[in-house]
Specification:
Blueprint (H helix, E strand, L loop, with lengths): L1 H18 L8 H11 L8 E3 L16 E4 L4 E4 L8 E2 L4 E3 L5 E8 L6 E6 L15 E7 L2 E9 L3 E8 L9 E7 L9 E2 L4 E5 L2 E2 L1 E7 L1 E2 L12 H7 L2 E3 L2 E2 L13 E8 L5 H22 L4 H15 L1 H23 L15 E4 L7 E5 L5 H4 L10 H8 L7 H14 L20 H13 L4 H9 L12 H6 L12 E2 L2 H12 L58 H5 L18 H9 L1 H17 L4 H13 L5 H19 L2 H8 L12 H15 L2 H4 E2 L1
Antiparallel strand pairs: 1-19, 2-3, 4-18, 5-17, 6-11, 6-19, 7-8, 7-18, 8-9, 9-10, 10-15, 11-13, 12-16, 13-14, 20-21, 22-23
Length: 699
Amino acid sequence: MRELESAITLLSREIESREKAWSWRRSYAAQAMRLAAEAAEPAGAVLRIRCDSKQEFANTRESGLLLKPGVAGQACAPADANAKPMTARRTVPLSKRSPLTFSLWVQPEAADTDVALLSTINYATNRAATTYGKGIELRLVGGELEFRYADRLPAYSIRVRTQGARLAPGQWRHLTLVYGGAAGKDDNRAYASRVRVFCDAQELEVQILNDDLGVPDRKRNMPRTSAKAKAKAKPELVRFRVGWDNAPGAARLAGGLDEIAVWPRALTRPEIVRIFDKQALPYAVTMQRKGQATSLETGWLRAALLNRSDPVLAQKQRELKNLRSELLALERNAPTVMVMQDLEKPRETHVLIRGSYNAPGEKVEPGVPEQLLGAWPAGAPKNRLGLAQWLTKPDHPLTGRVVVNRFWQQVFGQGLVKTSENFGLQGEWPSHPDLLDWLAREFIDSGWNVKALMRQIVLSATYRQDSAASKELIARDPENRLLARGPRFRLPAELIRDQALKISGLLKNRLGGPSVYPYQPKDLYKGLVVAADYPGTKYVQSTGDDLYRRSLYTFWKRTVPHPTMIVFDAPDREFCVVRRSVTNTPLQALTLLNDPIFVEAARKLAERSILEGGAAAEARLSFAFRLATGRQPDDHELGILSKTLSAMLNAYRADKNGAEAFVAAGSSRRDPSIPVSELAAYTAVANMILNMDEVITKG
């Protein structure tokens, strides 16, 4: 972002320096009018209010509407505060899933500090009602445009406010708002990041005030052709209030509006520029001829005329707009993180007698067990920052040991302190206390260097031992607490899936981004998750590369975790789990043989072995075996693989339909150059290899 900001600053200075020499001349008027005539407005508007006639409004009394000079012809404004409010005559089809573009001119007055410009939001109901705040609205708040789209305010809504519009009283400004709708047909929510706002055809930075709007969706058990499904999918017809809302005692717009239009799609930036030029340039020329043009109108003319007459400047302006759009897109899509902030004046905290909130006892201050774990750092504040400084003091007896023990557990399967979740009196004593102390001291002295610690552990003679052991040693030390052999334990759930993807060549290594939705049984949420139209209630399977990202990015719902992860003992995250249980069940083998991701990985591994392993069957089988286990198969193992391959070839040559169905698992395309029976046979063998204990076991 800093690079973009620097580039924008440099370009802006260059453009300003070229614009300084320009000044208005009467001869420019014809050229400006010609540019306006060439600018064609987009067709297909579902609402257009020119504000040239009272007939454009519904049931308007003679005294309810005042027509005054506007940007293009007349503008509309309320006749007085007691006049009947203005409502658009035409209705607009509205769907949260579908995009919309609003375009209008506004001339606020000093009194317009918080007033609706266009509104369908229902403020008239009780605030506790589920329908309170339902609707859509463009609102003027402190000189900035605020967009609201809600099922219920304030929680279930999108609220976005511009930063930098600075709409001044008495000035006509053009506003365009583009609502992008849902990103895809299967999305069950709309995002505030898909709202863009333009003022005088220049995109503005926006502040996201709320981002939690679900979009309607057909129920999964509702037929697509049913009357209810069709009614639910049909857009709602709404009528906009113009310059007011229905909140009791709410202010009405004191200024004026002109050239209001709504399109049922997201307009592009060039289209928005054409709308602005079509309406702004003639108005600016008129103000110049009257000698009443401000620097604002002169700036409109300068930008349009120089863009046509100075190719170098025009190119720089295009570059500047592209850079600004890129920066604003980054800012809109940047993830937000909840943070905590200390109160300026901390509230008093008391011991509650018998836990009763209305029976405060002795006043207490923030503190730690200093006698047990060391003194508070000198000068450290009594807050979370001070707590962090205390925990990471070089002489703190606990933090270094706990962290080192966790990494040891990750590498060896269990920690030097077996009860890694409990270092207290009820925890187990370390098997090698001196080793734990030494590693902790080295870790702290290295500046808490995790990479150095992991390198030190995995390069040690202890880790590099063979995991094989005699029956006597296993009987004496079944858990390898004496570290007399190398580690051997089943891989965690996430690594089993990631390893299969890596071996097959399917794994996508892109870093960061939102959660992804890999394969899971259809309708798993049905009956377990509330069937409502808000985020998290529907599992929409990802497509493309998102199906093959690391398991770290898999969407996780605590009430319904991903079944493949649960089968291999991943916790459900209902509570913190430091040390996972390890089980060995038939269901795990069935998952490896039948889960679509493992069958698909086996097919891609089969393709690799056929295309990269060589021409001979033994070479291909050895190639696949080595990719999965890290070693060559011995003669006995190779014989079993060859025998299985021969049997599978015979079976699938006799059953072409079965072969087609088998290799169709997953979303990735199969290689059409490989005969389907041959690919199915090698896929079956690869599936068997991926199911071996040696493949899913470290050691």
